[in-house]
Every structure is written in structure tokens, then in C-alpha cells.
């Protein structure tokens, strides 16, 4: 029998962390967090399997050995086409830096509620923004998630509290940006484009780099709640770090797959902008965050995208007017961001709005 909720109406709290603190003996979730009340979301609760996503050895992407580089480009092409997700090993980011970044973000979530609210933000393109759920102004059901989001490139922004966060994030931004840039160059080459095609066509020198740290506290009814529902990313490439607590699941061949954390590795996935640019050859993949009843999960996703005013469209070399016409409208990246983030986080709905026709 389901536990009886003590909530008559949604609690007026600013975060999931505050909700848990106010109700330490919580045995059920407020109805506004119950996703099984939404008819079209039931499929999202299907069971997940354990299966390994592909691995890409980053050190080979920067290798001067042509045979090694050719092999890893093939691996990257297969990972992008078959999965849209892959584990990046030998990426060169110090493990100490990765742990320090996660700890600094956790320290932000541990700030008093009134201090976090100083960075609340109002617009989806505000350079610093924190909150809960995804977009509480339009979300019909809230997510079991707190977040802090800040733009790190081309102009660096970070919360001023805690004091360690900005300093760590600045160096981290540079290092992780180099990794993303090399992966993007590899993807460009794997598509049969020039090595620097994506870099130059989408002005990655001024490309947006957005960090989102997520906190998923223990949930008394994880079978009813979602950390984040199925969605694709707005970026070109997203890199993800997480603590030792799993929760990321990827859709593959109609099944949900658990992506279990591997120490000192980074999870990478291609986003909607790569799907547009490749004219659907590489597809952004649905993924979700599930919660558990025992442990707090922390994840840091770093989204790497085009410059805000760059116009993204299928690469001319990958389309022709007869057998493979453009399947997506051209759109400025900042307009795509606003399109996705001003609505519900709902499967691939933003991409569907600019799709010209379905592709296999």
C-alpha cells in the first residue's frame, strides 16, 4: 500500500534539499513530484538493463601516430552512430581536479537557502542560475533535483559562494573545454568533414560552455519520482562527471541502459546540434536521471555548444537536393536554447519543432 502523503498542497520550498531537511522523517513525496500521475510518462519508468556503453581512448585522438588516430576516429564514428554515448578514458583531466570540482559544487548546495537564492536568476540565458526541477514556471510535475548552472565560456561566470567554487571552476573550464574541442574535431573528421569544419562553421572559439551541477538527494518513493525525465541535450557535445552513485540511464535499441560510474572517466554524449549538423546521421540520444532512497547523487554536466549567434544547419557536404535533402531548419544556437529551456523538458520536443521531415 502506498504511503499517505502528509502534504495537502505543494510545499513552498525552494529546493529538494530544503524539503528533505524540513521533513526528516518523510515517507512519501508531495503529489507534485509524482510522475505516475502523468499519462504519457509511464514508459519512462520501464526497467533498465546493465550493458556497457562504448569506450573512446582520448589519448589516441591527440596521437601523432596516423594508424592510432584512424582507429580511434572509427571507434568514435561507431559510438556516435550506434549509441550517441561513450565513456572517455585517458582524457588528461587530473582526478584531483575532478573530485575538487564535485566537492565545490556540493559545497554550493550546502549553503543556506537564502544564500543560494542570491543566484536564482530569471531567464534561461542568465549567466548564473540556480533552482530546483527544470523550469518550475511550466513544469506540471516537479523533478527530484536541485541545480546550479553557470556559463563559463566565452565569458567566465560562477557563483561567488562558496569561495572555492569560482577558482576551481576557472581552471576546470579551460581543461575540460580542450577535451570537448578535440572530441568535436574527431566527430567532424568521422563525418567525412574537414577536421576543423565544426570548429570554424559554428565559431567554437566563442562557443558556449555551460556547467550544470545537479544534486539528487535520497527520495522516499523513487519509483514515483524522476531526477530528470527522458530528454536529449541542446549541445554539440556534453561531458559528464558524477560521484560514485549511479543514476544516469541511456535509451539504446528501445531499452534503458544503466551507465555506471567508472573512476576517473568522463561520460560523453552528442547533442541536438550534432544531429542537425550531420542531418540525422548521428542522433542525439534520450537519457534520464533516476533517484534512489538511500544515497545522494551529484553530477556535473558541461555542455559545449556553438557561439550564441552561430546558425546551425545540416552541413552542405552531407546533404543533396535529391537523395538526402536537409531534414532540419537552420536556427541560431541561442534561439534553440531558448526554445528548449523555455518549455517542458520533454523527450526531443525542441528538435521536433525544427524538423522538416522524419528520417530513418
Automatic annotation (TrEMBL):
Keywords of the record: Dioxygenase, Iron, Metal-binding, Oxidoreductase
One Gene Ontology term of the molecular function aspect: metal ion binding
User: Origin organism of this chain?
Assistant: Corchorus olitorius
Provide the family line.
Belongs to the iron/ascorbate-dependent oxidoreductase family.
Q: What is this protein called?
A: Oxoglutarate/iron-dependent dioxygenase
- Segments crossing the lipid bilayer: none
**Top-level lineage group:** Eukaryota
InterPro entries associated with the record: DIOX_N, IPNS-like_FE2OG_OXY, IPNS-like_sf, Oxoglu/Fe-dep_dioxygenase_dom, Plant_2OG-oxidoreductases
- What PROSITE patterns does UniProt report for this protein, alphabetically? FE2OG_OXY (PS51471)
Q: Which residues does the UniProt record annotate as the domain Fe2OG dioxygenase? A: 206-306
Q: Which Pfam families match?
A: 2OG-FeII_Oxy (PF03171), DIOX_N (PF14226)
